[in-house]
Amino acid sequence: MKQILSILSLFICLLANAQTQFITKGRIEYERKLNQFKPFEENESENEWMKELMKTMPRLVTDVYELRFNETKSIYKLAKENTDNKYMWGTKPSETDNVVNDLAGNSVTAQREIFENTYVIKDSLRNLEWKITSETRDIAGFECKKAVTKICDSVVVVAFYTDQISVSAGPESFGGLPGMILGLAIPRLYTTWFATKLELVDPTPAQLSPTQKGKKVNWNQLYTELKKGMKEWGKEGHRRIWTASL
Fold it and tell me: Are strands 191-199 and 98-102 parallel, antiparallel or unpaired?
C-alpha cells in the first residue's frame, strides 16, 4: 500500500511540474486576414472603374506568416503567400519584409518595403500601455487573455496573449505583455492575425539574424518622411502610415 501511495505521489508531483513548464522557443504560424474592400467602401468611392474592379476581387485575402522565437529574440515574416489571392493596390504582402525583436537588447529592427522605397527601422522595443482585461479566448489550443492598447495616438489594437508561452513577443513588432500574443486585431486597418499552430523547434542563429537592407531610420524619422510624402492623401495616407507603424 505504501509503495502504491509513493508511486501515486510521484505521479502527481511530475504532473504538477509538467503543468508549470513554460514554452520558451518555437515557431508559430499566423493567418493574417485583410478586408481589402473596406477602405474604398468607407470613402464611398464614385469611381466606376474601382467598382468594376472590386467585382473581380475577393473581399478577404488571407496570407500565412510565421514567428520564430527563443527566450532572447524573435523574427516575424511572411511564410507562405496565398497564390490564389487577388490583391488590390497596396495590399499585396512583401516577401522581403521582416521584424526582428531583440528582447535581450531591448531593440527592434524592421525591414519595410513601402512603395518604391525599402527602409530598415532600428529603434527601441515598443513601450505600449496595455490594458489587460478579464476576457479570455482559446487560440490554437491556448487560453489567451485580452489586452488593449493604441498606436499612432488613436488606433486601437486588441491582442490576445498566453502566459503558457513565456516570451513577450507577437506578430509584427508587438509585444510587451506577460506572454506571447497569439491573436491581434486592428479594426481601423480591417486586419486580424490569429495563430493556427505551434511547432516546438529551436530557431537557428541565422534564422533569427537575417540580412536587412534599406534606408536606415528610426520610427520618428519614418513617420516624418511618410507624412511629408502623403500629406495630400487624406484617410488613405493615414492608413498607409498606420500600416508602416506595425
Answer: unpaired
